[in-house]
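Pipeline run #58 for the internal structure catalog. This entry was flagged by the ingest filter as a single-chain record with no existing model, so it goes straight to prediction. Upstream metadata was stripped on purpose; only the residue string is passed forward. Reviewer on rotation: M.T. Logging verbosity set to normal.
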Amino acid sequence: MKWKTSISKADDKGNTIRGYNLEEMISKLSFSEAIYLILRGELPKTNESKMLDAIFVSCIEHSVAPPSIISARTAVSSGNPLNVGVAAGILSIGEHHGGAIEQSARILQQGTKDADELVRQMKEQGKRMPGYGHKVYTTDPRTRELLVLARKYGIYGEHCRFAEEIESALENSSGRKLCLNIDGAIAAIMSDMGFDWQLGKGIFIIGRTVGIVAHTYEEMTREKPYRRVEDSDIEYDGPEKRDFEV
């Protein structure tokens, strides 16, 4: 059985990606333009590549705390090479870390287009709306910046408007501010750019991998081997010492 792909072809005549010669792409495309091409199959307009640049920058790094960074640094502190650390970091990205972009984009693309009705449905089902709320921000500054750029580049459309309507509907329903966070903003913008919701995690992974590589390298070159949790940070809550019954 043949493995079919419409993405690329590599043979003795050269490398072709989505119909374009790779050697020509090297001098003519930026990294984000090439990413857009390989994901979407067509070259982006200037505004689309600039928007994609901004999205990647917005999720490139978020300090040591996220699971992807802890996992990467722990893996290489055990004596593994850089690629193992990066793989460990990427493998830790899931529904609760990086997954909200995909979850939110799916709802924006497939769910009802009435914000109040959507919030009511989510509430009845005991679910929270992904892409909203933040433990620190009442207004996510990264979201604000991305939406400014989305308007500037002419990307802002029905999904971005709907995302902001949901923010208002959530506040009306709960009585407290649940801001449209960076995940929800990326979900809305990528939806207005025509990306399928199933690429949500992929877009996050592309941007965050750079930060994972940086942290992995720093752990390898600056920290002592065998990173472990401090005893003071461990709390045992199991049964007290007990004897075997004879």
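catalog note: The mean pLDDT is 96.
catalog note: The first helix runs from residue 22 to 28.
status: ready for reviewer M.T.
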